[in-house]
Amino acid sequence: MSFTRVLIANRGEIARRIQRGCRKLGLESVAVFSDADRDAPFVAEADHAVCIGGAAPSDSYLNVEAILEAARATGAGAVHPGYGFLSENAGFAAAVEAAGLVFIGPEPDAIARMGSKIEAKAAAEAAGVPVLPGYRGEDQSDARLLQEAEALGTPFLVKASAGGGGRGMRLVSDLGDAPEAIASARAEAQSAFGDPAVFLERYAPRARHVEVQVLGDTHGTVLHLGDRDCSLQRNHQKLIEEAPAADLPEAVRDRMRAAAVRLAQAIGYRSAGTVEYLYDPGRGEYYFLEMNTRLQVEHPVTEAITGIDLVEWQLRIARGEPLALTQGDVQFDGHAIEIRIAAENPAENFHPETGEITLWAPPADVRLDTGVECGSVVGHHYDSMIAKLIVHAPDRTGAIRRAITAIDAFAVGGVGLNLAYQRALLAHPDFAAFRHHTSYLPEMFPGGWTESSADHRDMAFAAMALHLRLVPAGASPWESLGSWRLTAPARQSGAAFYWDTTKDEPIRMYGSGSGLTAIQPDGQTITVESAALTGCRLSGRIDGVPFSRIAYVVRAPSHWRVHLQTPAGMTATDLRTLEDQHLQRATGGSGVADLLSAPMPGAVAEVRVALGDRVKAGDTLVVLEAMKLLQSLPAPVAGVVTEIYCAPGDTVAGHAPLIKLDPEENT
């Protein structure tokens, strides 16, 4: 069981997290990476690094033989799978052990048993853990499934036995829809997991997702490290996690924790694992959902309230060490919240965002587990989650407040993130009152969510920050201003002009740092005394009252972007100087109405048109896969297809031309 070098069969933030755990115990780390991750931080920070294949996960992070060969070549004695990829693959765990290496996780048999939702529920029932009523039999015939569906009654779920993350799951509210739901769930389960088996389960509306962290050693000891609530979800993907689970009756909490320990003991579980439940507040009952036989994405909130390093104990347990604490030694302190930070645009149906990170300025004094830094490239090959923000406070109210404060101080450029959306969730009164459940998002934002835009004062501050970046306070404008500055009417000092990229009229700036005045297109005026931009801090006085805002000014190809801290959160405002405005007009702007281009790098999944087809504006022409999501790309105008530049299976770059149309107005 002894080893001194650990190969980490993963990437991004979790690879860096495991590297920290290795360093804590004096162990060397080996990073394996794909061609797409060659310049990633986790590669540079490892003690050893090996390229194992191409960007596609099947060529690298899912390539078992390449990973084992890297372990042999570097002399690694153990393999940590992280989460995702091969972390819950029993065959991989067995192959690691067959190669004479230590698998840092549970026994392969435990992974296989809990990996089958049908077997897992049977094991839970045997251990006295409540499960939802349903059908989990071996007879997978249509007739039997429909018979059981009728007996179960609606609403119920059809779920893939080998599934997870909402894949292979269908909700049936009308028995007449059952045949189609069963068929489509089977097809998706076969495609995603290679196993078409499904089971039926009663649907619990307005249920919460509560889970219990367990830790077991190789000497028969199993402890629980408390519970978490992960009820705020979108499409069965968690958004915000917290520990402990709030608004949970203590008697129910105690039973959940004890049941999780019983189940782990019954299957001889070792390492870190999570028993997940559905909790029905209306009935006051909980039901076993599944067991994750790996480290969870949300493990930091448990570490925050217990002070126990889960990765360290995974490594110690894999070396054969007994747990050095008893259940009574596990104490809980305060409340912790984790926010998943993803490269996506929630205002545009969570459209994936890709590109180079040009600004990465996280808040201080909070935990940030991240796989990127300034200069990192976010590609389309992997999951959109790039970081996790974790806060800890004495109580839940304080944790929410601290999380919002941290988001308000987080500035990122080059790639759009979901931070403003996560802030809106945290600030929502239903989240504070804990009225949410796993299907609650449509109720929180019934008309959809839109990002707040900068108000007139924030727009003025953004223009001032850019002005002070270009003309430092105290500098003579005649020494520093170029030809794109104009002189104002008589008796006024020189004026500078800045255009919001969404408007035609400029913001006019007069004066200097001692008294800087911004005039908006609508005539509103703001004057700031002693205006200064020092580092990333915009400061001054308005009517004698001092203010200070975080402000980052970053150059983009055709404009400037100002990231400004406002009362509504961090905003990003795009501004052009007069010079930028002239260049934009000279090039005719961007965008071609009759050309469909790729909004991001990705793989072409479908081309739904042929040459000569007549299409309407909004018809889907191409389906693009990026960050595990399928994006339907619509026709920009009505017309006839004249050119097709791509085919299914092609990998295309961002802004690459895909389909050329002859607009209807021409035909």
From TrEMBL:
Domain ATP-grasp residues, every copy: 121-319
UniProt superkingdom: Bacteria
SUPFAM superfamilies attached to this UniProt entry: Glutathione synthetase ATP-binding domain-like, PreATP-grasp domain, Rudiment single hybrid motif, Single hybrid motif
Pfam name, any one: Biotin_lipoyl
Entries under Gene3D superfamilies matching the protein: 2.40.50.100, ATP-grasp fold, B domain
Cofactor: biotin
CDD domains named among the record's database cross-references: biotinyl_domain
Keywords per UniProt: ATP-binding, Biotin, Ligase, Nucleotide-binding
Domain named Biotin carboxylation: residues: 2-446
Domain Lipoyl-binding: residue ranges: 587-662
UniProt signal peptide: none
GO molecular function: ATP binding; ligase activity; metal ion binding
Protein known as: Acetyl/propionyl-CoA carboxylase subuit alpha
Species assigned in the record: Primorskyibacter flagellatus
The organism's taxonomic lineage, starting at the top: Bacteria, Pseudomonadati, Pseudomonadota, Alphaproteobacteria, Rhodobacterales
